[in-house]
């Protein structure tokens, strides 16, 4: 008797694998829904920065930090669950959300939030990839271990969102009478832009999003130009931005 | 502080292309951080480029194997020796490419570069087709994995060993249906090329297309539907009539219809399934034609395959 065309066990074997994949994705979706809620909330709170004078940042930032704590919890759950499976198999499902979460953390820290014992919060502090990992309590840039982590690309894309947000803040800060802030932002964005130019980018998402950085630089420089033209830049800020 | 970029053969590359250090780089507090990130990203991009290149070669070789196999006229234990030789020499080339790729796609990198490794689907198609032509059965994913393991091992072996082994790369190991290939000596911890479930499933989807082509050509040229006893010399025909390729196509078609749609890539799945349905119908038509007008068909007449392929859906 010739063997059958298809081994009878094969169907069940494949079906089991497909079913497992389906279940994993469903659970991931739930975790990500949860994360999404917290990221959106935190982004929402952060957007109040555009209408808040610098003297009241502290209260606002403590609210943001609460949001970030929630984000951290969700990311912890995601990390525990996702680490059971090949990282890059499902990474596409959460990478956008993690980028947004990263940008809330980086922006909050830049505005002076997220102080730790070793590093007091101060305006203009840029968190590194490693420091973002510490905030979220997850590893970063794993290469030899197939587990959840924050990738370089996610960090850089998060930075780009922060740049966009800051270029908006520069305008609004001036409206609130805080010209020094615009100067400060101008200097920071210019430095970041120079940093991005160090990268050798392929024609990928990073390159496309990177394009917005130069427009942000220009936008803020225009603001500073307007201010300096009218002698509106306070003395003490003059050294920082230029 | 920057790492050394290397080309495909491992020689250090001078980094003085049009881009890069020639640009006056503005140094500031963040420059070192970005330089470190750049080196990591460069390593990633270089690795992906190497894989894409090798993958393209493996795909081309796999397609050539399939073309060779399409010159087979019936299902039997051994492929005709000239075809077997063609297949073997291509497999030996594939083996070397895979062995070179293997270290780069271990662990976390397997899925990271999954989209650059479409060649594995093509290889799965070639190997399952070759297996079908010799055994009239579907190669399972585990057997496929051990075949690929074996290829990688051969590719990693020193040059003379490859030459000595090349003769039976496919012949000896792939003809014994599910028998796991006996590794002569397994080098400790040698990296392998892991196939994903998708590589296998989509490879088998494409297999149905190849089977349809094979069924069409062989029926046209031999006047019988390829199957277990199609060569007349089959030893163990048994009492019931031997299975034909039409039966096998039906089984494969049903198999895919019954499987749940894998999440994540529904569109691709639906497309492949539609093509498979079409292939099954084409072979059904062959079976019908052979019964109804069998002897009327002039020997050597081959249906115009290209025309059929280019007008999908004509039968709907």
From TrEMBL, chain A:
Classification via PANTHER family: TRANSLIN AND TRANSLIN ASSOCIATED PROTEIN X
Entry protein name: Translin
The species this protein was found in: Remersonia thermophila
Keyword Cytoplasm included in the entry's annotation: yes
Keyword terms: Cytoplasm, DNA-binding, Nucleus, RNA-binding
Location(s) in or outside the cell: Cytoplasm; Nucleus
CDD domains given in the database record: Translin
Pfam families: Translin
SUPFAM superfamilies reported for this sequence: Translin
Superkingdom, taxonomy of origin: Eukaryota
TrEMBL record, chain B:
Top-level taxon of the source organism: Eukaryota
Pfam entry (one): Translin
InterPro entries: Translin_C (IPR016069), Translin_fam (IPR002848), Translin_N (IPR016068), Translin_sf (IPR036081)
Subcellular location: Cytoplasm; Nucleus
Residue stretches of biased makeup (Basic and acidic residues): 1-18
Residue ranges, compositional bias (Acidic residues): 305-316
Region named Disordered: 1-27, 167-192, 296-316
Keywords attached to this entry: Cytoplasm, Nucleus
Primary localization class, coarse: cytoplasm
Listed Low complexity bias regions: 167-176
Family: Belongs to the translin family.
Annotated protein name in UniProt: Translin-associated protein X
Lineage: Eukaryota, Fungi, Dikarya, Ascomycota, Pezizomycotina
């Amino acid at each position: 008797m010739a063997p059958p065309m298809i081994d009878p066990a094969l169907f069940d074997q494949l079906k089991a694998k497909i079913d497992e994949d389906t279940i994993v994705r469903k659970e991931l979706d739930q975790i990500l829904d949860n994360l999404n809620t917290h990221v959106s909330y935190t982004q929402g709170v952060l957007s109040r920065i555009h209408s808040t004078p610098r003297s009241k940042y502290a209260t606002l930032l403590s609210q943001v930090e609460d949001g970030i704590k929630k984000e951290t919890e969700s990311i912890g759950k995601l990390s525990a669950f996702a680490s059971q499976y090949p990282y890059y198999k499902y990474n596409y499902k959460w990478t956008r959300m993690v980028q947004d979460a990263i940008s809330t953390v980086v922006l909050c820290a830049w505005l002076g939030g997220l102080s730790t014992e070793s590093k007091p919060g101060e305006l203009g502090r840029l968190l590194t990839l490693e420091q973002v990992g510490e905030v979220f309590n997850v590893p970063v840039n794993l290469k030899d271990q197939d587990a959840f982590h924050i990738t370089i690309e996610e960090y850089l894309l998060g930075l780009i969102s922060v740049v966009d947000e800051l270029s908006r803040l520069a305008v609004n800060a001036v409206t609130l009478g805080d010209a020094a802030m615009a100067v400060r932002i101008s200097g920071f964005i210019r430095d970041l832009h120079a940093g991005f130019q160090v990268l050798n980018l392929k024609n990928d998402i990073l390159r496309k999003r990177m394009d917005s950085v130069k427009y942000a630089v220009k936008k803020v420089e225009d603001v500073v130009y307007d201010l300096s033209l009218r002698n509106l830049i306070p003395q003490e800020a003059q050294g920082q931005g230029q | 502080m920057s790492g050394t970029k290397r080309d495909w053969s491992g020689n250090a590359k001078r980094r003085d292309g049009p881009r890069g250090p020639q640009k006056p780089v503005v140094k500031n507090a963040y420059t070192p951080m970005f330089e470190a990130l750049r080196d990591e990203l460069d390593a990633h991009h270089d690795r992906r480029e190497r894989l894409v290149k090798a993958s393209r070669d493996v795909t081309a070789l796999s397609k050539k194997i399939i073309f060779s196999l399409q010159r087979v006229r019936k299902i039997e234990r051994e492929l005709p020796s000239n075809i077997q030789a063609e297949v073997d020499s291509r497999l030996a080339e594939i083996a070397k490419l895979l062995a070179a790729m293997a270290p780069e796609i271990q662990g976390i990198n397997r899925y990271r570069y999954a989209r650059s490794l479409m060649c594995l689907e093509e290889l799965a198609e070639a190997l399952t087709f070759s297996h079908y032509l010799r055994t009239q059965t579907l190669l399972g994913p585990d057997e496929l994995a051990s075949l690929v393991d074996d290829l990688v091992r051969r590719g990693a072996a020193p040059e003379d060993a490859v030459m000595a082994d090349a003769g039976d790369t496919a012949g000896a190991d792939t003809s014994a249906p599910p028998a796991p290939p006996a590794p002569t000596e397994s080098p400790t911890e040698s990296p392998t090329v892991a196939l994903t479930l998708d590589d296998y499933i989509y490879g088998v989807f494409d297999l149905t297309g190849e089977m349809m082509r094979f069924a069409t050509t062989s029926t046209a040229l031999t006047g019988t539907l390829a199957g277990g006893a199609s060569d007349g010399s089959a030893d163990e025909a048994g009492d019931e009539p031997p299975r034909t390729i039409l039966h096998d196509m039906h089984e494969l078609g049903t198999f895919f219809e019954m499987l749940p749609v894998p999440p994540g890539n529904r569109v691709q799945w639906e497309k492949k399934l539609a093509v498979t349905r079409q292939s099954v119908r084409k072979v059904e038509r062959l079976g019908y034609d052979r019964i109804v007008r069998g002897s009327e068909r002039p020997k050597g007449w081959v249906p115009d395959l290209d025309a059929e392929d280019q007008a999908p859906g004509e039968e709907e």
